[in-house]
Structures are given as C-alpha cells and as structure tokens.
Amino acid sequence: MNKNNSSKITAAVLLILLFGLVIFLEQVIRPTDEWAMLLSCLRMGSVYALVAVSMNLLNGFTGLFSLGQAGFMLIGAYTYAIFSIPLDLKDSVYTFYDYSVKISFPEVLGNVFGGFGMITGVLVSIILAGIITAMAAFLIGLPVLRLRSDYLAIATLGFAEIIRAVFLWGRLGPVTNGSNPLRRFTRTSDFTMDVGNTTLTLGTTTIMIIAAACIFVIILLVNSSYGRVFKAIREDEIAAEAMGINLYKHKQLSFCISSFFTGVGGALLAIFMGTVMASNFMAAMTYEFLLIIVLGGIGSISGSVVGAMLFVFASQWWLRWLDSGIITLFGTRYILPNTIFRSGFRLVVFSVIIMCVVLFFRRGLMGDKELPYYWNKLKSRIMARKPKAGESNG
Amino acid sequence: MLKINDLMVSYGGIKAVKGITFEVPEGEIVTLIGANGAGKSTTLRTIAGIVKSAGGSITFNNDELTTLTPDRIVAKGITLVPEGRRVFPDLTVLENLKVGAYLRKDNLDKDIRWVYELFPRLKERSWQPAGTLSGGEQQMVAVGRALMSRPKLMMMDEPSLGLAPKIVKDIFDIIKEINRKGVTILLIEQNANMALQTANTAYVLETGRITMKGPGLELLNDEGIRKAYLG
Q1: Which ipTM did the prediction report?
Q2: Where are the domains of chain B?
Q3: Looking at beta carbons, which residues of chain A come within 8 Å of B147?
Q4: Are A229 and A248 contacting, i.e. CB atoms less than 8 angstroms apart?
Q5: Is A132 helix (H, G, I), strand (E, B) or coil?
C-alpha cells in the first residue's frame, strides 16, 4: 500500500512539473519562433492521444473492432463549434443560411462571470459535444453491436461516412452550415489570463489539461470492475456470458463511453484547428488512430499516449526536413539534393519507420503493459546490479 | 431444486435434445453421462440460458428459466463451468475470480479466501495471467471463478477434459468437498467411471434422449453401461 501511494505521489509530482514546464514554454515561445512547432505538436498530440486512448478502450480493452472514430469526432467538433460561436459573429459564419442555434455558452457565461465564465462555457460546450456524440453512438450501437469482428468494423466505417454526408446536407444548413466551414468560435488563442500587467497565454495548457483529465478518467474506468468486465468480454465472450455478464449491455456501455471521449477529442480538435469542416473527417483519419494504437500497443493506455505523441511529432515536425531538403544541425544549415528530398519523401520514410516498428515490435512499442511496468523493470535491473557492488565490500 | 421437463433444443433445424426430463434435488451430485454428440453440453448451455430452448420447461425452485437471459439465471444462483475451462487468459488469477463475482456487490474477501483454501496453488499464482497456468490449474481457476458467484447450483461441463488422471482425481475430490458445503452439482462427463463413482444420481443420455436412470454406483455395475462407456 505504502509503495503504491509513493508511486502515485511521484506520478502526480511529475505531471505537475510537466504542466509547469508547458505553461512556462507557452509564455517564452513566440508564435513566429521555430520552436512554436513544439507547442503546436503538443496540442495536436494531446488531442490525438485522447482519441487514441478512447479508441483503445473499445478496440484494445473490450475487443470491439470499431472504425467509426472520424465520424464521432466530427459530431463532437461540430457540436462544440455550433455552441461556441458568439452570436454577433454568427451572421458572418452562416453566410448562406439563417442560423438556428441562438446560444453560445462561452459568450453567455463569459459575459456574466468574465474569464472563468468563458472557460466554464467552453467546458459546457465540450461536455455537450461528448454527450451528443455518445447519444449518436448509442443509436448506432443498437443495430451494429450485434455484429462481430470485421463486420462490426465495416458497419461502423459505413456509419462514419453517413454521419459526414448528413453534416454536409444542405437542408441542415441552419445548424451545420452545410458544406461551408464553421469558424470564429472560441479557439486556442482565446485562452488567455491577465495577471497583473502581463497576459498569460494558456491555450496549449488548457487543451493538455482537458485531454489529460479525460485520459485519467479512462484509466480509472479500466482499473475498475467495469474494466475487468470489458477485458473478460474481449478474452472470451461465452465464458463472460456464463459469469452473468450481459454482453450487449456492456458492449453498448463501452461503445458510448469511448464515443463520449472521442467526441470530446473532436471538440478539442476544433479548438486546436480553429475551423471545422465535415469534409476533413475522412476515414483516413480513423486509420491514423488505428495506426497509433497498433504502434503504441493494443491494450496499453500509456502506449497510445506515447504512440500519439510520436506520430504527431514525427509526421508534423521531425520529418519535415525530408520534404524541404533543408536541415539545420548544430547551427549549420545544410541544403540536401532536391532529387529525392522533395515533398512527399517524408511520407515514404514515415511508412518505412512504421514497417520497421511493426516488424520488430510485433505487439506495438509497449505491448499491453503500461509505463510503470517498464519503469519498475528498469529499476529492478539497476537494483540487481547493486548487491554485486555490496558483496565486494562485505 | 432444478426440474427439466420435456426439454427440446435444436441447432439450425437439427434436434440436439429431443425431449428430456430429469431432476436435480437440492444438495446432491447429479451426473449426465453419454457419448460425443449425445446432447450433454447443449443441455447445460440451455439451462444457463446461452442457448435458447425449442420446447419444454426448465424450472429452478419453481421459477421458469427458459425465458430468462444468462445474467438473470446467474443471479438466481446457477453457474456454469464451461467446457474446456475458458479462463480469461490475459487476466490474472485474482481478476478471473473477481469477474466471477461480477453480479455481487458485497465484500469478496471471504469467498476469495475460501477458493484459495480449496486450491492453495491458485494463491501462489494469484498475480499470474491465467493463460500461463497448466491445464489442471486453469480448471481450478474455472471452478473457483464459478464459486465466486455463490451459486446454489454449479453445473460443470467435462471438468476432466484433457487432464492427467491424478489431477482428475483431485478435481473430483474438490467437487465432493464443494458439494459438502451445500452446493448442488450437475456434472456432465465422458469419463463415466469417475462421474458415476461421485454422483448420487446418474442419467444416461443417448442421441438426445435419456435412456437410463439410477444411483451412480448402481449404473457403474450395470452390464450395458460397462460395455458402452467403461470399456
């Protein structure tokens, strides 16, 4: 028990230090700096981590092979955007329609309570995004969850496409703005706080905290008795049924919870991107998350987080030089031949890296283990060396 | 306690169980023996609610079970140790036991202690994934997991399947001990010898029909049974 508590405290302290560092970096780094990419990647990485973890809850822990993520993110992103555009800006966004949702939570609460009201309003919109996504998932789950493995994947993929088509539909224009993008809602750059004379920018921190809180809830869920039941269903449906577990009810539960957090992820993506457009939420997006959870390890939450961060950092930042052919090493700028270092080469190298990972780490980078497991393994390896040094002394 | 009346089950038009009637009195060990395809497993799965019946009735303490879902049947106090053990391989032994107690909301410590008393081996391996255990140990997990729901009736599907003779004997000793603690047992077996020695009452099932009934030891000495099942 004592040991358990101390490791929890260590984790909490590390997290606080991490967030302190992010807050600090956010004040120091100017948007025009080269290092601004770091903050951008952290934002996108945390959104991807959240969606990957919630996909892992479904695919890794409950064993339901679902590919509807892009569709559910779309619902989350749209719900957030629709309920967060300030009223006087709505006319400039809904240029072809008469907007029908006449409320903006960040604006309403912000007018009454100031800065904290605005943040609360954003949270209300985000939670609403999660709830509406979960409700859509419930309806889709009614027919779809009776299917197994590949059939479930195909059906959810199909529903994701249907969702996209529905949001593009002109008749729903007063709500969704049809095929035009939604803009001007509360986004990353709006999260600022005045302390004395200085203004703190907290966009990256806010996104990271919300994503981390959601991931924390999922961790609690996975370690609860519900988590055990989800794993039991994954391992053996017949045995689980014989233990008195209502299969359909728990699959539906897992599906709705996972979709809730996917919806929240969609809302965070909207905050991060600043524009929402249904045509961006293609099936390819779902495959990115599938790639992340396979890379990180199916059934490992920390694996999904690490996988998401690596994926985002590599594809958005670290491998950019392969496209541009310009690389700066220790202050020297190198221009590489543009015969192969041209746009698109990055994706080739990226694919090769992924193939290597799949070949050499069959079960993903972390398997189905979590970070503390590797930490303890490392620690016991170091401990195992120590007694030898002690022996010569005694 | 459990009364089965004219039960019929079919799989896609093929009748697997063709109207069987039998009874499991409280506190007894009852066994169904028979060859492959006689309909033994189907009968158990139907009682557990995993397979739907095509006719007849199953009553447990006068409650009809045929219309209930598996989770409601477990809640009534009937549990199934499935054929081939079917432990959850990536869950630890302890987690397996806890899943077995899923429908209970009270404290599990006492029951976990009892299962560890019955199977000291499991206590040693409490943190090991169940899939890494030997066949006999997995059978212990399966039995322990079923006991965690505090069943009144425990149904066991071929507990001796694929186990070494000595382990089979251990398992049957444990079955008797569990029975002494007040759990009624319905056992199906191909290993007729062991089953008949253990059971108070035995039924012989042949191609979906019950052909014989009697006290276990009596059937063990029956000439026809000897020829057909004991070799």
Answers
A1: 0.88
A2: 89-150
A3: none
A4: no
A5: helix
